[in-house]
Amino acid sequence: MVTLLSDGVFLRNGEELIEAKSVQAHDAGWDAKEAAKQTMAYRILKAHQQADGMENLKLKFDALASHDITYVGIIQTAIASGLNEFPIPYILTNCHNSLAAVGGTINEDDHVFGLSAVKRFGGTYVPPHMAVIHQYMREMMAGGGKMILGSDSHTRYGALGTIAIGEGGPELVKQLLGRTYDIKRPGVIAIYLKGKPGHGIGPQDVALAIEKAVFANGVVKNKIMEFVGPGVSELSVDFRNGVDVMSTETTCLSTVWRTDDKVKNFLALHGRPDAFKEMNPGEVAYYDGAVVVDMSKLESMIAMPFHPSNVYTIKEVNEGGKELLRHIEEQAVNQLDNTSLTLGLADKYYDGKMHCDQGIIVGCSGGLYENLVAAANIVGGKSVGNGRFAFSVYPSSQPIYLELMKNGALVDLMEAGAIVRTAFCGPCFGAGDTPNNEGFSVRHATRNFPNREGSKPGNGQISSVGLMDARSVAATAINGGALTPATEVAYDERVPEYYFDGKPYEHKVYSGFGHADAKKELVYAPSIKPWPSIKALNDNIVLKVAAYIDDPVTTTDELIPSGETSSYRSDPYALSEFALSRKVPEYVGRAKAVRAMEKARQEGKLAELADPYEAVTTAMQLQVTPEEFWSHASIGSVIYANKPGDGSAREQAASCQRVLGGAANIAREYATKRYRSNVMNWGMLPFLIDETDKNAFGVGDYIWVPNVRKILESGEDTYTAYVIDAKGHTKEITLHLGELEAEERQIIAAGCLINHYANA
Questions:
Q1: What's the mean pLDDT when you consider all of the chain?
Q2: Domain 63-181 of CATH type 3.60.15.10
Q3: CA of 256: how far to CAs of 39, 142, 279, 355, 638, in Å?
Q4: E strand spans, 353-415
Q5: At the topology level of CATH, where does 313-503 sit?
Q6: For labelling alongside 314, which of 85, 98, 304, 340 has CA 20 to 30 A away?
Q7: What is the pLDDT of residues 353-381, one digit of tens each?
Q8: What is residue 101's predicted lDDT score, i.e. its pLDDT?
């Protein structure tokens, strides 16, 4: 089904994979360094490189994209940094805060601000319920050879020939200010598709099979996945888009696919024939590894709680029965802090199948035209039943909704009992269709992390999600929630031709790129607050440990939850109250206490810092007055986690820590580049620590890091620090920051990206 080639490979004529260490490659005399220039990824990166050479990339993008839980903060940051006009197309969609906030105007206030911003600075505004962010970008912006940067982790338009990257907001700010995206040239992994998907197999099945094969071993981490091979031609563009968007869950940097007439027709259909560019690897291209996927052998798949890589075949789940479900639940609950909670998975197994409480097809992965047509073909003339099982579908754009209405697919869905909703990402991040306590929802969506469905384990309420293809969700629906692979259901797989009607966009989307008007006033509201003032990095720093998380991986959803927090994304202080609320509820209080000490230091109230002063000076035998000590040292909180930052690109996972007085993270490694970048852009030190030192400290301990600014600015990377516990015991540890660009050092030293640009 899926085979990994972890060493280098050559691809000849786009068809034949040859291992670099083979006799065939040796006899051919191919040079890996030169052949690496024949990948599609290399060519696109080279076209966007702003510096000499190709090892240290300084990239400028062709367009930017944000949704309504990120764009206010981005624009506010850019304004504070000197923004005058959007230099490239910047598309603001409104697919996250689309539900009305209970008891206030919060969400719509953000939308009004967004519209006023694009009028002032020259951008594009897509109103609520019109389109989810990535579908709009596919339909109206992506194209061959382009690069697009988005403030959502699922920014992926590789199937259309675009290298698209999801990053935290500060990286978009850099582009708005004419700066570059700086990164070492990433490795490229060939995703070699062969065969043709069988009956009932959809894009989510292919995506989950790849996810299962590559996530744990890090084969594609921070690399570009390049989709090649004869199997690409067997897939429609919709199918390719559905696979492509899920690549984020592998922790890859981005994707790109070879393009063909199907892509050409897709772009022409959407009124953009000039956006097409035929793209293929060169005659002999070199890749750092390959993932070979035989799509003809794939079965209907399901990702069980709590990660998209926790993949089984649906057949395995049903045949494994209660025993397997107990095992899955045990593994899942171990990821929660409250292990007394139960998911009730085993109780859902009877009559030879697992039974589900809810089915949803939604968002940038599920709500595509062909997925919903397939679902309609499966449920048409049948019933989803009047029992507990609930079934909802969310077309990903108004044009798709319109076409499904015109061709009768919506009629089939609605007559069967499906609830048809508008374009909204809510179920993907816990802001819509939240299952009941101990409920199990099967979804064609992007993620099934803890709490992504809206549960609150801190309050004793927990539910869970399984990810699977729209076809299997629909098959499950007509069986009253009994888990059913689409491969076992007979249905018509023919798809009516899609006719794109752009009138909803023509009539309602505001398109103002190139027409900035400085006379237009920004429209603020009480819920929109500016970023607080942040001080530059001092000579020395005292860190107090506010959270110690020993889980294998810590997601951005755990660092700052989604769902009910979305309405507060434009108020840094209000949002920060939710930091780690579902993981370490005590964190906010601990961090605030440290923040109060730093505020007292800045105000000269040094008596309030007697404890850290005495702890450090006694342990280190420093003969300095409080005034001398605190003039050259600041204090901030620190979080330890083994591998933080998996999941969403949301910058608030870092900015909330900063607002609460955070000064650093300490980790064994960072799960994604984007989270580490967010930490740095908000002026925090992204420390790394060896396994031998990670147990040297705990919550409440102080960590003294002398000469931190000097070492940072010198370019060295060994920070000798000292742990001081409550009893005054001292232990020396070694910290590192890892590889940093010169500007990244400057940003950290300045205290944050805003300060860096304001001082430029």
A1: 94
A2: no
A3: 10, 12, 9, 38, 37
A4: 353-354, 358-361, 390-393
A5: Aconitase; domain 3 (3.30.499)
A6: 340
A7: 999 999 999 999 999 999 999 999 999 99
A8: 63
